[in-house]
Amino acid sequence: MGAARRTVPVRTQLLGESKPRYSGQAIWQGYTDLEHELAPYGQFRLYVGRGARFVFLHVDANTICWLGITHDPEGTKADDDKRACLERFAGWAAPTEKLIESTPVEEILHADVYDREPVKRWSEGRVTLLGDAAHPMTFDAGQGAMQAIEDGLALPRALGRERDVPDALRAYERLRVPRTTALVNSAWRMGKMFDWENPIVCGLRDWILLRGVFAAVMPRQQQKINSYAID
């Protein structure tokens, strides 16, 4: 028998070996059918603490998805993810603990969060990348899936306008790389802000949040993101 063939990811073939970048964040994620007056259908809620966040929202009329994000060393593991999560978020505002308690242990995922530093090109000859293969980002900007969709719209348009495939892929990159680079970096910075643990710095951050500064700024940022044109 011959030697086993090594499968090399397309990204590695195009861009060379590189390691994902650990964000400093770990995430617990769970799904529950808990009914609670502080978790009505249609509402998204975010609780912010020192080096941690807790988010929950309905994914349908009967199911709540919750996320517990913590600032932890890479590779931190627990023998019992549900118990560890409950200990980490003990005493947090309702219904945090009830959401965790009501979730079956097999429905709880615990994982580290990674992205990759932005690169200036995704293509080689007639081969290119899109979505997370090209520009993986943390969830903090809420744009990972959306940017893959935008790639999927931009790529065929570029191919339709250029007769030469490599030229079309260069045009696709020129359109998409600046935007996705900005969003990767924005998500990274946002995550770092929520990783703060110094009580004074966190107090300043929370004061800004409570004053509604983010409420005024974020809609404008979201409008800027949503008004982007593929053409």
Could you characterize what this model shows?
Helix 4 packs antiparallel against helix 5. Strands 2-3-4-1-5 form a 5-stranded antiparallel beta sheet. The protein is built from 7 helices and 5 strands. It has 2 domains: 92 residues, D-Amino Acid Oxidase, Chain A, domain 2; 96 residues, no CATH class. It is elongated, with a radius of gyration of 21 Å. The protein is an alpha+beta fold.
Helix content: 40-55%
Strand neighbour order, sheet with most strands: 2-3-4-1-5
Compute the CA-based radius of gyration. 21 Å
What can be said about the biggest beta sheet?
5 strands, antiparallel
Number of helices: 7
> What is the chain-wise order of helices and strands?
HEEEEHHEHHHH
Number of strands: 5
Low-confidence stretches: none
Which band does the percent of strand residues land in?
A: 15-25%
Concise description?
With 231 residues, the protein is α+β, with helices and mostly antiparallel strands. The protein has helices spanning 10-15, 81-88, 96-101, 144-161, 165-194, 199-210, 213-226, and strands spanning 21-32, 44-49, 52-60, 63-71, 109-115.
Topology:
Layout: H1 10-15, E1 21-32, E2 44-49, E3 52-60, E4 63-71, H2 81-88, H3 96-101, E5 109-115, H4 144-161, H5 165-194, H6 199-210, H7 213-226
Antiparallel strand pairs: 1-4, 1-5, 2-3, 3-4
